[in-house]
């Protein structure tokens, strides 16, 4: 679209004299199918186009004003520093004025302009997205979700009929791309997975509603809608225009980031993010529905890319690239639905023996879910992860509850196809034997990794811990003692000397 074919308002907004503040010229215009975005240097102005796509309706001035205010309200949650306000645009004759006193003819969302290189997607592309960034992101998203409102009205969007409507629509809209961007087998098997899940495991979705994990989420939280600016993770551009896209399971949001990292061939980073997020919220049961949302997010990315193939205005070279991208996402959507064989790994060893270090490393290598007893204990006790627990948190009763929860989660998730690492001392036979018995009863493969190091090393490690959720002290270490492994346990056992190279000792 040339400048002369742009609406008169946008033509005027491309001139510096329109603004009551200094601008950087030339003013840059970014268009999407639903908005005009004008970058003026330090401030961004976003206008909604007068369009109605069914799922999004900005067709009247009243609706555009409403959704501008909704965009401001909702994005204050994750990126308050970026969203400055909503301003009217008035008109005198043929001249438009920002924030004038007359009758508004349009509304704009006013935002801080931040450098595009601070987007997590751009940081990833430059190799600058670190593990620390992803741990910070996990904490930010967890805090966002834990504060996100829910209600009886919002919870209704977690019912199977609501969820499957959008997913079935995706399949209906992509039948024409079978044999082009995805195979018939991929299409049939991806759809069969969701049909079977909804038909045979509807109680999973009932539980998500009952436990109030359907909330007013972000709805579009991929790496291009997150930035790291002024040393803060900011979640911006959430869905303001459609309630069903926003009133979703928290795992819907989590799946965007996990899928984004998987699609970029970094499953180690997606595993790190996922485990860090789950530890913050304690919502490990959400893993039972996560594959559905992973497949959904990848499928939608494939679908939207496929639409370019039928656009006559798109060059053939671009279509070829789009076809390859769509194929990659369709394949990923299908892979998320494939059956996997779960297994259990039981860590064992005294405080400071390196159990969590080994477990973290193993999780990254295998995509395992890392369950730390310290986190589970604090969630059960209602204690913040970064707070020190009182004596009653370490009572025999609480220890029993912690190990029961560890085992129940382990069996549940391994039965769903996850590799699950139970990270606790498991110093007593009475704690280990139920894991051995239950894994055998459910025919789940089991390994026991016993981590060992000299007492002086254990003491030094415990003393030097900083910023960890464990409350173990050197005084506590002196009272700990490992009960020997039984003949029943020994076939599962692997001994690890954590003062030596772990790479050489861990299974490949």
UniProtKB/TrEMBL annotation:
Q: Which InterPro entries match?
A: Cell-binding_unc_protein (IPR052732), Kinase-like_dom_sf (IPR011009), P-loop_NTPase (IPR027417), Therm_gnt_kin (IPR006001)
Q: Which UniProt keywords apply?
A: ATP-binding, Kinase, Nucleotide-binding, Transferase
CDD domains, alphabetized: GntK
Biological process annotations from GO: carbohydrate metabolic process
Keyword Nucleotide-binding among UniProt keywords: yes
One GO MF term: gluconokinase activity
> Which catalytic reaction applies to this protein?
D-gluconate + ATP = 6-phospho-D-gluconate + ADP + H(+)
Per its UniProt record, what Pfam families does this chain match?
AAA_33 (PF13671)
Give the highest taxon in the source lineage: Bacteria
Task: Mark the transmembrane ranges.
Answer: none
Q: In which pathway does it act?
A: Carbohydrate acid metabolism
* Gene3D superfamilies on file: P-loop containing nucleotide triphosphate hydrolases
Signal peptide range in chain numbering? none
Catalytic EC class: transferase
| Recorded family membership | Belongs to the gluconokinase GntK/GntV family.
Annotated protein name in UniProt: gluconokinase
Report the source organism.
Answer: Phormidesmis priestleyi ULC007
